[in-house]
Amino acid sequence: MDGYADGDGWQGWRPEEATAATSLLNCLVRELTEPRSGAASGYRLTGTGRTLTTGAGRWPQPPLAVDGLILDGFDALVVLAEEEARARTGVDNATLGAEMRDSRDVVAALLAARAEAAARDEKAVADLYLRSEQALLAGHRYHPAPKTRGGTVPQSWLPYAAEAGARYPLTLLGVREDLLGGEGVSGAIDALWGDAAPPGYRVLPAHPWQLELLRSHPTLAPQTLTALADGRIRDLGRTEEQAWATSSLRTVYLPDADLALKFSLEVRITNDIRRLWLRDLRWLQPVDEVLAALPPALSSLVFADQGYRTLAGHGEDGWEAYAVLQREGFAHRVAPGLTPLLAAGVSEGFDGNPLDRLTAEQAFAWWRRYVELLAPPALDALRDHGVVLECHLQNVLVAVDAAGLPGQVLFRDHEGVKLTTDRHASRLTRFGPGVPNPGVSPEYGRDRLLYCLVVNNLMEMAGAITARHPQLAAELWPTACQILSEYRDFIGVPHIPAKTNLLLRWLDADGGDSTYVPLPNPLAQVQR
């Protein structure tokens, strides 16, 4: 069960349109509507005052109508979203519509690539973890253009697309030792490929797609060509090892080495260009120190972003564009006998998803155990230590036993971790005033955690379970409340702020300048 065309409402829509429209419709309903007054069905579109009606399902779906007139097809939905955003904000956006259509076209290309692989009778990836990482055909379910690749032709990005099962060799650069920058531990890179570097040089792995993208960079392209010509940088060829694309695209996993590497990509994915920005790189080690100092019951659940290396001498642009971050693998984190899976993959669906083979009783036990393993550590980290883990579905791994039941939950990616100013005031001044830092107020930290934990994780996982077992719908949230009763004062806010990705992109704002819409808190609703 993959959830891409939930229910019968999408009949008559092409598969890529149904997949792309789900995300756009989710945004439209969440950000640009409000419930109609009284017992009236449907939604009031807040920009124009028109009435939108939808079909029921895990997410809103066809039949769609505006003021009783049928809305048929993805392009009509794009036009509706543009009209409502324009009316709501009073400003226009000449590019977002093209991004939405490009996102649909990317899904079409991915579906075609999958069909071609099936026609060639290629065997499915044996590793369940990799299968879960490469399952996110739809991408972010609450973004208007989650799959856009900048309007480029599929041939430029398909070789690196996780959703198409991509695996590929990395490119190795030899960088003169005095031009290798970075911080922390990145010795696993040397252990793998250090022998490829000539004397006086260090090896710097590079994402081949990023190198292609940098060829058109106005300043870095000529600088790099000059450095290659005079020998400061050397092209050492490609790795024998295959790197597997993961859900974030710019992070790859090397199974034999049990190593993850995160690169920069000069591509807008959802809201941001996906660089390893200097503002985040400089805080990599301080944040890792905080996480490592947590009590073992917490610190043991967080994958270490151990360090990074990059190219110096090409300014801040080069420092960011060539950076590669080393993240530890599973060996010291995942308990014996358990198989790690990307939580987002479990929510979305893939061949081998443990949710697919559970009875209703087992699915209920799955939910209970998942909440027990996921929520208390995340809440403890904030309440007791002032650490906000970015525990949305794509940053959480759930390790399951042979029966498919959760035995462990693990957190990854320091980039989104925040530190509350009441607990970490002195640490947050480490680089002086005026330097961006990951500090947030306790109130904002709570809102951010609840958004990641409840809206972006538990609500989606509950949806995946109830899509399979509708009879459980009334039981899941009361059970979660019971499990989290000691946190009632903390989690009992009536509403949780949810990011407005459609409005964010419409206003062309930076991802860090997000605005939010209040969503009813399912935990608070049950408590009352």
Structural class: alpha+beta
The side-by-side strand order for the widest beta sheet comes to 6-11-12-13-17-16-8
What percent of the residues sit in helical stretches (DSSP H or I)? Answer: 25-40%
Distance between the termini: 34 Å
Low-confidence segments, ≥5 residues, pLDDT <50?
Answer: 1-5
What is the typical, i.e. mean, pLDDT? 93
Radius of gyration: 23 Å
Principal-axes shape call? globular
How many beta-strand segments?
25
Helix tally equals: 19
Strand content: 15-25%
Largest sheet: 7 strands, antiparallel
Protein name: IucA/IucC family siderophore biosynthesis protein
Organism: Streptacidiphilus fuscans
Domain Aerobactin siderophore biosynthesis IucA/IucC N-terminal: 129-281
Family: Belongs to the IucA/IucC family.
Q: Describe it for me?
A:
- The chain has 528 residues and is α+β, with helices and mostly antiparallel strands.
- It has 19 helices and 25 strands.
- The strands form 7 sheets. It has a 7-stranded antiparallel sheet.
- Strand 14 and strand 15 form a beta hairpin.
- Helix 1 runs parallel beside helix 2, helix 2 (74-89) packs antiparallel against helix 3 (96-119) and helix 14 runs parallel beside helix 16 (473-483).
- It starts with 14 loop residues before the first helix and ends with a helix.
- The model is unreliable at 1-5 (pLDDT under 50).
